[in-house]
Amino acid sequence: MTQGLPHITMTARAVRDPELRFAASGTPVVKVRCVAAARKFNKDTNEWEDGDKFWIDVTAFKRLAENVAESVVQGTLINVVGRIKTDEWEGQDGSKKSAPSIIADSVSLALDFDAARVQKTERRASAASDPGGDPWASGGGAAEEPPF
After folding, report:
1. Pairwise CA distance, residues 124 & 131, whole Å
2. Per-residue pLDDT tens digits for 7-62
3. Continuous segment of H or E residues that includes residue 72
4. How would you classify the pairing of strands 28-42 and 7-14?
5. pLDDT tens-digit profile of 58-88?
6. 47 pairs with which residues across the strands?
7. What's the pLDDT band for 142 if we cut at 50, 70, 90?
8. In angstroms, how far is CA 3 from the centroid of its own chain?
9. Exposure string (b/e) for 50-62, b if CB count within 10 Å is 16 or more?
10. CA 36, CA 57: separation in Å to the nearest integer?
11. FRET pair for 134, CA 20 to 30 Å: which of 14, 29, 34, 63?
12. Nearest partner of 16 among 57, 63, 61, judged by Cα
């Protein structure tokens, strides 16, 4: 569905808290409305002024959706890498409407003005791994070198 779409990298500010929902299949889906605005400092008034604004919805799926819903709130500055597409629908008056949106591959917090604290979440152990053991340990008690 989204193959072949152009890629985009942008920094924008969330204008509302993300909305987390679940597809019929149980897949988490989050949508967050964002705005990117050019700002410039006006030396005459000694104040910052907003320039043109670009409004866009960012959608993420699966674990990324859950992490966005937990980490982003209204006002958060985020970096988004994803595929840009055009959403199309019919308005109440019957006219055709369209707007750009992003299907996110990656979302991160922009640390230009705020600090963030990373909290690792536990991942489910696979059947091949020992959930309580050293992931680098081999059988026989000797540890192998990490593969990097």
Report:
1. 8
2. 999 999 999 999 999 999 999 999 999 999 888 888 999 998 888 899 999 999 99
3. none
4. antiparallel
5. 999 999 999 999 999 999 999 999 999 999 9
6. 42
7. very low
8. 18
9. eeeeeebebbbbe
10. 11
11. 63
12. 57
Secondary-structure percent of the chain, ordered helix, strand, coil, rounded to 5: 10, 50, 45
CB 16 within 8 A of CB 33: yes
Which two structure tokens, joined as six digits, stand for 123? Answer: 């991942």
Task: Say which CATH class 7-112 falls into.
Answer: mainly beta
Q: Is 142 left (phi over 0), alpha (psi -120 to 50) or beta?
A: beta
Domain ranges of the chain: 7-112
DSSP of 84-126: EEEEEEE-TTS-EEEEEEEEEEEEEE--SS--------PPPPP
Dist. CA 76–CA 67, nearest whole Å: 14
| Residue 31: other Cβ atoms inside 10 A | 17
